[in-house]
Write a structure and sequence with these properties.
Length: about 600
């Protein structure tokens, strides 16, 4: 049994809802934050607390139908229910949904949607009965003749038992015995269409429309296998036949790359985190007046279908993976883009490839744009008002540049008028304390150390006490590098975090890596959460420092992968070897480098 079903607009407005039991924690709001705002439409489901959420999109009308139920329940009919509810709701309220006329009087529309509740109840009853009959048939092992099978979720609405429900305003047929949207009339159609519904549910269970297409393909004469296209070149340097016709989706070879110039001037302002991004953004191409005239006078809309997307999205996926986006994340981004675009309309004079790239660019920008505001200088001022130092802990694997980038952050803070102390909590690696002392001497900030073979949590605790006693504004905690699979060292790191409760936990990772960096971040974050002592609040990674960003040219995929995996923002990027080479991330430059 489901707990709740909600129909909402992509903008977040709820159009209709029906709740069977009270739902704790508002999982639909969590879905909006995690899926809608981060463009994760390609995910199959979403879990929150004890609930599981599944949904279906109607991109043409910008609707989302969401079902909430207990994770422990195996409800195989949810996909069928979502598709049927979407079709029934659109059929009943099509007049108001077209052109989003419901926005003119949202309150009246919500009152009108209350009439959909009995339609839904009849539909739910029929779907559950059909699912039960299908289970019995499966257990008996008997085959039942399929009646009028239709495509899976989002397919042809004509075969739906409620697809003939008339829009608001009545029907043109005078012979209708009852209102097309009345519970009794709809119930009759639903019950009569139970056999068709069982056939559709069986088809979805076996893979939906893909299974029927596979059967058709098996019956047809097999064509020779299509070999993978590779670029071939003639002896004179011209492209061969197989090399011709490829659409170049990568960045222009002559375009400026996001390679960051090192700042050699010792007098450079360390507080200017956006200095070297100037000039790297590509100017937007302005459309000519004649093109605007054609679009406005002669452009007609056409809907995007799956075949359109399948011709371009695979090449975009290859472009992303070639630029260090993790494979599974690239797949998820492509699936989300396909789900978001299917059914939408584009003008005839807008190329399909450009419409897809524009959608993907907008999605990537939303991913890289921080969902929470991390303003270190503001938070330092608040901590100062409370009479305590602001603490930042740095963690990561070996050799990514934690100590170096910690020193860059210290230099930036000092340039903004803050008194900074460093805490040498890497008591494991030989020479780590001496390395931090060299950095502290160069930038002119003190370092607290207690030597080697000490408990890192105690060292950090004593450093914070000293910083408070001596009136320092910020305490930066350096930790030992460790591999994400080293259980004892990960437990020690978790102890340091939960004992000292730093205001900000930053994961330091390299911009050079793809899948490895995502795995490191994921396991560091999960380890901190898993090793939370009883009675303490769960704590994970708060932000990311991406190092060696000046060495990657246009292979900026690690930035996308890490933010997508963790949901946490990139706070700083390291762009050189000097202390001034620290910048805030510019999402537009990253997206332009990734897909042009």
């Amino acid at each position: 049994m489901i707990d709740e079903i909600v129909i909402l607009h992509k903008g977040g407005l709820v159009l209709w809802t029906h709740q069977f039991t009270p739902v704790r924690g508002n999982p639909v709001n969590q879905l909006i934050k995690t899926v809608l705002l981060e463009d994760r439409f390609g995910d199959e489901c979403f879990t929150f607390d004890q609930y599981k959420l599944e949904w279906v999109l109607d991109n043409e009308r910008e609707l989302i139908v969401v079902v909430v139920y207990q994770q422990l329940l195996a409800l195989g009919y949810v996909g069928s229910l979502l598709a049927e509810v979407r079709q029934a709701f659109v059929a009943q309220h099509q007049g108001m949904l077209e052109g989003r006329r419901w926005m003119d009087n949202y309150g009246a529309f919500c009152a009108a949607t209350a009439k959909f509740t009995p339609v839904f109840e009849n539909l739910l009853k029929t779907v559950e009965e059909a699912a039960e009959e299908l289970r019995k048939e499966t257990r008996r092992g008997a085959s039942r003749a399929q009646a009028s099978p239709s495509p899976s979720r989002g397919g042809d609405e004509s075969s739906s038992p409620v697809a003939h429900a008339e829009p608001e305003g009545g029907s043109d047929s005078a012979s209708a015995p009852a209102s097309p949207t009345s519970p009794s009339a709809t119930g009759e159609r639903v019950l009569k269409g139970k056999a068709a519904m069982i056939a559709r549910m069986k088809q979805r269970k076996e893979g939906g429309a893909s299974s029927s297409s596979k059967k058709a393909a098996a019956a047809a004469p097999k064509a020779p296998p299509k070999k993978q296209m590779r670029a071939k070149w003639n002896d004179d340097g011209t492209p061969g036949v197989e090399g011709a016709g490829f659409e170049d989706l990568s960045a222009d070879a002559n375009a400026p790359r996001p390679v960051i110039e090192q700042t050699e001037d010792p007098e450079a302002n360390p507080s200017d985190l956006d200095a070297t991004w100037a000039g790297l953004e590509k100017p937007e191409k302005s459309r000519s007046r004649f093109a605007n005239f054609l679009r406005e006078r002669f452009g007609t809309n056409r809907a995007i279908d799956g075949q359109d997307l399948d011709t371009i999205l695979p090449e975009l996926r290859e472009t992303m993976t070639s630029k260090n986006v993790a494979q599974d994340i690239a797949e998820s981004l492509i699936a989300s883009t396909k789900a978001d675009l299917t059914g939408k309309t584009i003008p005839n004079f807008t190329s399909l490839s450009q419409a897809i790239k524009d959608s993907l660019q907008a999605s990537l920008l939303r991913i890289l744009t921080p969902k929470k505001d991390i303003n270190i200088l503001r938070d330092v001022a608040k901590a100062k008002e409370l009479g305590r130092p602001y603490t930042i802990a740095f963690c990561g694997v070996n050799g990514v540049g934690k100590s170096t980038n910690l020193s860059k952050v210290a230099y930036w803070l000092k340039g903004n008028g803050q008194r900074v102390m460093l805490a040498a909590c890497d008591t494991f690696r030989s020479g780590a304390v001496e390395q931090l002392k060299v950095h502290s001497g160069r930038i002119g900030v003190p370092v607290h150390d207690q030597g080697y073979a000490k408990d890192a949590a105690d060292v950090a605790k004593n450093a914070i006490i000293r910083a408070k006693k001596e009136g320092y504004d910020v305490c930066l905690i350096d930790t030992a590098g460790r591999m994400q699979d080293n259980e004892p060292l990960m437990r020690s790191l978790a102890k340091l975090m939960h004992t000292n409760k730093p205001d900000l936990v930053l994961f330091v990772g390299e911009a050079l890596v793809g899948n490895d960096g995502v795995d490191q971040l994921k396991k560091f974050n999960q380890s901190l959460r898993d090793h939370t002592p009883p009675g303490h609040p769960v704590r994970g990674i708060d932000g990311i420092v991406l190092t060696k960003f000046d060495t990657i040219d246009d292979k900026v995929g690690a930035a996308i992968s890490m933010v997508y995996q963790s949901g946490q923002p990139i706070v700083f990027v390291g762009v050189g070897q000097s202390y001034q080479d620290l910048r805030a991330l510019n999402p537009k430059v990253v997206v332009q480098a990734l897909i042009g």
